[in-house]
């Protein structure tokens, strides 16, 4: 219901600015993000700073504990902020643990309320949105870019790959998912595909990151929630420019290393031939 209210308000381009902001705020989606991140930070703090064991118990039946535990690992473990580490996190905590993707995503927020049932819930989207919030605050600490998160979101709802099909391992076995489909990760990890989802500003960060949950620090995920409302081409052009500059910088650094090696070889030859003295 929160996501449906958010999308209904966000897609209403005829609203005034004040009314638009009021509808977004009253939807409660951003409050859900804040509460989930706040709880994940609390778990991470208990584990990292107090050395305590933490029991995360979900009483609502809508995957809150799963979201919190997965986010706590992203906060604490730098490996989960790499492409393959994030893929392993989703596979371990969501897919293999039996998260019912088919039941949760069988109806979207655009479905009429009468067609939704209690098993429908965008809990995985809420998790990805929380990861996006952390990504916005610590962009240099993530190996993957925002496009990778958008890709995972899209394939969790509709995909030609078998990663998110079925509600559990029993469903996958009954449908023959492993025999009839391939994994999304095997496709993404191909070098020619993976290059599109690597962040050009990534710098390995081995320490714990602590995201802010202050209202001023949280933003609406435009690439997903406002994709039909806003013109995103300027941001995409900026990302392409950053990638181009990063690649150019890498190429120039390689040229410098090559030229230095050539200079050293020429100096050694000059010393042997007596052209230069020690």
TrEMBL record:
GO aspect biological process, one term: negative regulation of autophagy
InterPro entries associated with the record: Myotubularin, Myotubularin-like_Pase_dom, Prot-tyrosine_phosphatase-like
Segments forming domain Myotubularin phosphatase: 1-225
Gene Ontology CC terms: cytoplasm
Any Pfam family matching the protein: Myotub-related
Family per similarity comment: Belongs to the protein-tyrosine phosphatase family. Non-receptor class myotubularin subfamily.
Alphabetical list of PANTHER family matching this protein: LD06050P, MYOTUBULARIN-RELATED
Protein known as: Myotubularin-related protein 9-like
Organism in which the protein naturally occurs: Hirondellea gigas
